[in-house]
Structure formats: structure tokens, C-alpha cells
Amino acid sequence: MTTIAVTTWSLEQTSPTDLLPAAVPEGDVRVVRSEVPSPEFSRFLYTAVGGDIRWTDRLGWTYAQWLEHLDRPGVETWVAYDRGTPAGYVELESQDDGVVEIVYFGLVAAFRGRRIGGHLLSYGTARAWDMAERRPGVKPTTRVWLHTCSKDGEHAMDNYLRRGFKLFDTKVEEEPEVATPGPWPGAHPA
């Protein structure tokens, strides 16, 4: 089996004032919270966004696993829509002691390069900072963090840095090289 070196960067914000919001894109772009836990919709977002950048860790999840994950307190999915069509999403997960992780973030390939990503990341990060206002029992946020890797989109790291995230860790590991799965078996990503 062939392996590839994958660099993983961990980034964080430690104050809401660290967030440097992107401009709101022109047109009818909205970001809406998906409030009803829906394994079908979440799996659609995961495969549509991650299919061409090798997101594979959740592909084997059952319906029950998706539902259990989505139904946990402190897990939120925020979806960007361009003229009513899902363009991308950000998944937040509240962790211990006021920490919120941006677990997944990205755009469907057809919507990349249209300034939606900076806006979605800004909006999602702001929602990480104010999560306690929506979630009784969740401690006020003191830190927002995420990780990205060399397999992610070419503009991912730049977007995170421009939104005010600071690098705090870097790791390089060998991983098995896997084919891009596409949004469904047999699909060929754009």
C-alpha cells in the first residue's frame, strides 16, 4: 500500500476579538443552523464537501451513529445556502471547559472561489463564540480551535489565518493513500 506524508496544522482563537470577519458575499447567500438532527442531510453535506478532498472517516457510519453524534448537546451544523442550494457547512462541537472545535468546515466544489468560504468560516466561528447563549449548560466559550491538513483545499489555511486563527501545533504523519471517494460511490469529483 502506498503512503503519503500528511501535514496537520492545529489553529486556535482564544478571544472573540481574534475573529477577523470576511466580507459578506454578494447575492442571496445565507447561513442557517440545521436544528433538526438529520443523518441523511449531514451525510449528504459530509460527502458533498469532502468527497474530492478525501474525507473518509465517517463514510462507514451507520444511521444510528450519525443520529447519536448529531443529537449530542453542543453539536451544531450551520449550512451556507446560495440561492437556496446548500453550498457548504461548518460543524461545531462543544468540548470541556468552554472549548469549541470546528470539527468540519468546507464548501461543495461548485461553490468554491466565490467568497462564500470566508463568510461561512466567519459566521461559524462567531457561532462557536456565542454557543453558550443557545445551549443551556454549555460553558461560555473561551477557545475555538480546528485542524486542517495538506489534503484539504488549497485555500483552507489562508482562510483560517485571515479569519484570525493562530497556529499552535504542526504534525507530519504517513497515511495510506486513498482514492478520493467523491460524493457517492463511483462519482468523479469536479
From TrEMBL:
InterPro entries (UniProt xref): Acyl_CoA_acyltransferase, GNAT_dom
Domain of life: Bacteria
N-acetyltransferase domain ranges (all copies): 29-190
Transmembrane segments: none
Residue ranges that the Swiss-Prot or TrEMBL entry lists as coiled coil: none
Alphabetical list of PROSITE patterns matching this protein: GNAT (PS51186)
Protein name: GNAT family N-acetyltransferase
